[in-house]
Amino acid sequence: MAKWIKKLKRIFRRHPWAKWAALGGAAALMGIVVLLLILGGHEPEKPPLGSSGNVRTITLVAGGDLNVTDNTVASGKVGETYDYTQNFLDVAEVFAGADAAFLNFEGTFSGESYGSATASAPLALAQTLSACGVDFLQTANSRSVSNGIWGLSQTLSAIRSCGMEPLGTYESNADFHQQQGFTLRTIGGIKVAFVAFTKGMDGMGLPSGSEKCVNLLYTDYTTTYKKINTQGITDILEAVEKAKPDITVALLHWGSEGNSAISPSQKKIANLMLSLGVDAIIGTHSHQVQSVVYDEENHSLIAYSLGDFYGDGTTSGSYYSMLLQMQITKDLDTGETAITGWDYIPIYTLTQQRDGQGMKVVRIDLAMELYENAHISSVSEATYENMKSALAQIEKRIQPPAE
Prior knowledge:
By secondary structure, the chain is an alpha/beta fold. It has helices at 2-14, 16-38, 70-74, 85-96, 123-132, 148-161, 173-179, 230-242, 264-275, 352-355, 364-372, 381-397; strands at residues 55-67, 77-78, 81-82, 100-106, 136-138, 165-167, 183-187, 190-198, 247-253, 280-284, 292-295, 300-303, 308-310, 320-331, 337-350, 360-363. It has two domains: 55-349, Purple Acid Phosphatase, chain A, domain 2, CATH 3.60.21; 350-397, no CATH class. The chain is built from twelve helices and 16 strands. Strand 2 and strand 3 (81-82) form a beta hairpin. The chain is globular, with a radius of gyration of 23 Å.
C-alpha cells in the first residue's frame, strides 16, 4: 500500500490536473463506501505483514565513514607490510553475522604512496574488510576522484578483487548506463536494490566524458550544494523501480562535517527519495551520529548519519559511532516486503593519544563489561569514563529532533 501511495504522489507532482481528477473520483467512491457502511458492509482489515508465519527475514548491517588518513593507514603497519585484522576484530562478528554488511569507504585503493595526501590505502585494508564480512563499500563520497578517474577505476577493481562490491561510482559513462546507477542483489531470497550518492567530492569536478562516473545529489556539487539534482536522482530511482526490487536502500554522503543539524535540502532530498520508492536512507559525512527516524506505518527508515566507523577520532563526537542493524521481512504468501525493525551497536575507536592503546574499533558495551569485571584486557578508567559519556551521547543523538 505504501508504495502505491508513493506512486500516486509522484503522479500528482508531475501532473497536477490528475489530483483534481482523482479527487472527483474519490468523492464518488466515498459515496459508495458510505452507502455500503450504512447497509452494514465493511472492508475487512488487511492482516499485518507476516501474520501467516510464512516469512523470510534478513538483517543488513551498516557502518559509517572509514576515513583513509595517515593514522588509519599506519594503524595496520606490521613491519614492511600491512595487516588490519586486529583493528576490526571486535566488530567482525557483527558483520559476519549479518546477511549483508556495508560501509562508506572514504578513500581509494590506487597504490602508493598511502595516507592523507593521496587518500590511498593498502589493498590489505580491503582484504581485511572482506574477511570480516563486509559485502559492499560506498565509494560515492568526498574521495571518489581524489586520484582522478584512473584512481577511481583502480579502486573499483581492487574492491571487486577482494570479493566486495562498490556502490555509487562507475569506471566510465558507459559503465554507468550499463548498471543504470544502482546495484541489485538477492540476499536471503529478498531482492535488495542499493543506490549511493554524494553531495560532492571535496570541491573536485568530473571531467568531460566522465560526468556519470559518480552519482551526485546536487548539480552545483563543486560549489554551494543548493541545486538538488532532482532529475538525476529521479532517473536512477525510476530505473530501480522498473527492476522491481523488494526493498530499496539509499546510501547518502550528505550534510555538513562536524555539524549535527539536518539541513532543509537534506529533508527535501529524503522526501524526494521516499516518494520515489526508497525504503531506507543511510547517511554519512558529518563524522557525528545523528538522528534515526523510523516510520512504523510506512516502514521507512532514515538514519541521517552513522558517524565515523574508523577515523582519526581527534575531534569531538568523531571517535564514537554506531553500527545500524536493519531487519527486513518478506511475506512469502503475498510478496509484501518491509523494514520491520532496527537496532544499533555503539562502537568506539581507541587511539594511542587518547586511550594509550593501539588504534582499533571496539564495541562499547563489551569493552565496558570487561572493565566492570576487572578483566585483564580491559581499558583504562579514563577510557571507560569516555565510553560512558559516548554511550549517553549516542543514545541522545539518535532520538528524532523535535518538530
